[in-house]
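Re: the pair you flagged

First of the two:
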Amino acid sequence: MNQQRDIDHALTEIDENIHLFERTLKKRTDLPEVSASRVLALSDGSNQDESVLRLAELVADRLGAELVRRELGPGGGEAPLTDDRDRLPFEVLEQIDEQSIGLVVLPTPFLEDYPSLGATSLGVVADVLLARSPVPMIHVRQPLEDPRAVLESGVLVCLEADPETRRAAAWLWRLVPGPLQVLVALASAEHHAILKFSRGEEQPVTLEDIGQKLGEQISPLLATMQERARQEGRRVEGHAYPDELREVLVQESFPLCLVVVPGREDPDHTGPLARECVRYTRGPVLVVP
């Protein structure tokens, strides 16, 4: 009796996977084209500056773009946090618009990286740019020993396959020539909010519910990326983690590579997903609005 129940369960799973595969084939879509004619490298006097410049040079070369440099105020990161410094992110936003900047690489250090300032977190410039930048931005949290090696593989961290996620996947594809991963953290609080809103009810949401919904959303994007990977001799893998995203990002086994995460179209709001990635990932993080 138990054996028959196991067989029936296995057949049900196979049937569900076949239907998911069929739906995936119908929904599969191409990645959008992405480009940038100018890459802006920002420096602030922190120990990330050299890594930012080397990474920006590599990115500009891969995009065939002009490299533009800017120091964030006199004295870089050693400058006191005055009203002048508070205006810096808005001056950078003006420069992005006036000079047709298509991508920005910037240091996003901890204040402990500045010898003259004693604190543990920073957000004066990067926080505003993270929320309001109209173009992709690569945040560099730590000095990189080998920026070129970091760009040889990449991870897309996402919640769902919305337009922002597809743009993020396109940027990852454009900048990273090596193996790619698509990472979905199932335990994200944002997933629970999304599911409750879509259902119009307040009943408890399980990881099984989330996994089923995400399977339908992410599979078409993953199928598109894997098909292109086969044509170009590359490798794309998809992973779902039941842990909190922070726990995944801080693991020693998490690859030191370019992490790409979608932002939000709303200029006044960037979800916790992008902020978590920027805060906890060892390697550079590209946030794509």
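Second of the two:
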Amino acid sequence: MATRKDPGLEKRIERFNSTYEKGTDYFENFAEDASIYTIGSTEPFKGRAAYEANFKKLLKEKRKVDVLKSDVQVMDETAVLMQLLEITQSQVVTVLRQSTIWKKENGDWKVVHLHCASVGTPRPTAAQRNPQAIKVLADRIATVSAQVGVAQ
């Protein structure tokens, strides 16, 4: 697959990451018939509407997204993007490997396939010493792990 720059795609990828970070307009990045595999899923969400219905509420909380690595390959009107992301939300840090396939539709790039996998174990942003704080943190890790599966 050839590698080339596409300014429209680069702009769309930046928007994809920023809308996820902000928790707004994220689902606009997806084609209507997209297939989305979240963390740990064996079956995809079929279509943007199904994905949005399941995860829209989880995106309300903002998160910090740092792109650790990004690789894009473009051929004609199809692109493959691999990203390694570090996501911080509710005092929990998760590293996520995300692969997306993009198609150019009516002059705009849309995600037609997304697959997310967690890399390592989610960890707290700071060490907790109080037993109650540890329990609260464990609950947060479970909650954030579910939430990060969105784009994660």
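The first strand starts at residue 30 and ends at 37.

-B.
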